[in-house]
Amino acid sequence: MPVIHTHVSVKTTAAQREALKKAYGKAISAVPGKSEGWLMCPFEDNMPIYFAGDGEEPAAYVEVNVFGSSVPRAAWEQLTAAICEALDKQLAIRADRIYIRYTATTDWGWNGSNF
Amino acid sequence: MPVIHTHVSVKTTAAQREALKKAYGKAISAVPGKSEGWLMCPFEDNMPIYFAGDGEEPAAYVEVNVFGSSVPRAAWEQLTAAICEALDKQLAIRADRIYIRYTATTDWGWNGSNF
Amino acid sequence: MPVIHTHVSVKTTAAQREALKKAYGKAISAVPGKSEGWLMCPFEDNMPIYFAGDGEEPAAYVEVNVFGSSVPRAAWEQLTAAICEALDKQLAIRADRIYIRYTATTDWGWNGSNF
């Protein structure tokens, strides 16, 4: 039950989102027990995002939410490196204009009932 | 202070959102102390959502956030059943392509001050 | 690492978002250790938002997420007052149609690694 929810200020193409999704799918395996088979990736693009008072340079806000009570810090570190690299490569968003917020929570619904 | 924040990959009509909002309004009463009178329902539609590597089949990501320190698990279970049923009925999104993430947190603002 | 993520039902202009961003930038200094230099402000507008069963009157849902383990309640209170005032002034959204959800969490990525 991992979700990687991407908000970016730039426009994206289907090919770029496909490449990001593939990169996320590989990266999520850094988190114990998670794989692309359970990964959801919503994308929101072309939205105004200010960072440090500036709304001109491309920026990204990514929320990574997983099912569970905790995740080793090293796993989040690996994800941060992979997500920043993918957003820079695909969308030319500089890593210092990206925030990624991580949460692990225990109440998730899927397929009509809860995990 | 419950919020049911719906993200779906398909387009929605005003009538469909109205029907979903009504279904959510009934369902939220499963959570002790909550009612439609305090329920907020933001809708985001027609957005790319990948699940299990696939971006073709309809999918939904729903965040249910309430004011409070905890909620009985049985209440979340009832909500999951009702939300999945409503999304399937109104938008033909299969329950196994829906994630619902639940949180209860204690800091909320409304009407100029905090609860 | 504060993020003020604004969702509003009304359309916004670049000038209105600029004014909101400025107001948020001033307001965030109420939170110990935070400043506009680290503030990210994603904006989503013109989206359907129901509140108390009504989808006609303007409404807003704001998520304020910061890095850290806790924040003094008084700081959140000041933010609520400032955010409600700014949304009313710029977008004519009444304070009693605004929810603001606050979280402080400890896992954040930026610039390729985690704080």
UniProtKB/TrEMBL annotation, chains A, B, C:
Source species, domain of life: Bacteria
Listed EC numbers: 5.3.2.1, 5.3.3.12
Gene Ontology molecular function terms on file: cytokine activity; dopachrome isomerase activity; phenylpyruvate tautomerase activity
Keywords annotated in UniProt: Cytokine, Isomerase, Secreted
InterPro entries xref list: Macrophage_inhib_fac (IPR001398), Tautomerase/MIF_sf (IPR014347)
UniProt keyword annotation of Isomerase present: yes
The reaction(s) this protein catalyses: L-dopachrome = 5,6-dihydroxyindole-2-carboxylate; 3-phenylpyruvate = enol-phenylpyruvate
Catalytic class of the enzyme: isomerase
Any one Gene Ontology cellular component term annotated for this protein: extracellular space
Compartments, record wording: Secreted
Name this polypeptide is given: L-dopachrome isomerase
Organism: Galliscardovia ingluviei
Lineage: Bacteria, Bacillati, Actinomycetota, Actinomycetes, Bifidobacteriales
